[in-house]
Amino acid sequence: MTTDWSQERILVYAPHPDDEILGCGGLMSKAKSAGAEVFVQFLTVGDTADQSPKGFSTAEERYAEIKKVSDHFRWDDWHMALPGDAHHLRLDTVPRVDLTQLIERGSPLSIERLRPTVVLAPHRTSYNQDHQVTAEAVHTALRPSNAALRHHPRLVLAYEEAADQWRSEPVAPPNLVVELDEPQLLDKLLGMELYGSQSHTHPHTRSELTLRSLAVLRGMQAGVALGEGFHVLRCLA
């Protein structure tokens, strides 16, 4: 399967700022350089206790980081759907129907308004409840129906993050690898560095070595030097 990324309109669903980089930062770099349109729909952000020396990060810090990352990747637009501590790390308290309707038509970057050709979302096996909820809501929003009545993106992919396999249920390996070159991987690594409140030294799931190691592993599995792995949910040839 080959894709002419210059012809694509890509919509990435990120439960929180940085998930889009961890899951598909290389693909975004590759596609944007080819001429694709790239949009990012964040679901939520809030003040967060963490393992940094300060012990927390604020939503204000995260918004400043998004601006830097957006400029770096030259996104065409981004939007935060449900900001604030009432939703951050609590998306499992939001009714599925409300999230699904937001994705389908309620957001400025909804499927109905944007009509993307490619959609990327987290894999449902993540240990994080916000990731699980986002994955399931996107899956519901893109359910099969009459394509003459509802927009059907041609390609729907679930991206992976290094800690997804922490859950005990069996997870099949990615069945699609997007080849990356070194500059595209460096773009991804710099994007994670720009999320300064979220990047960590090794060993950590968000360390530079973890991201590079996963890219090397997925590339090797496809017979190339570097890659990003995805699970195909829909592919209309």
UniProtKB/TrEMBL annotation:
The keyword DNA-binding does not apply. It comes from Nocardiopsis codii. Its EC number is 3.5.1.-. One of its GO terms (molecular function) is hydrolase activity. It comes from the Bacteria. SUPFAM superfamilies: LmbE-like. This is PIG-L family deacetylase. Keywords: Hydrolase, Zinc. The keyword 4Fe-4S does not apply.
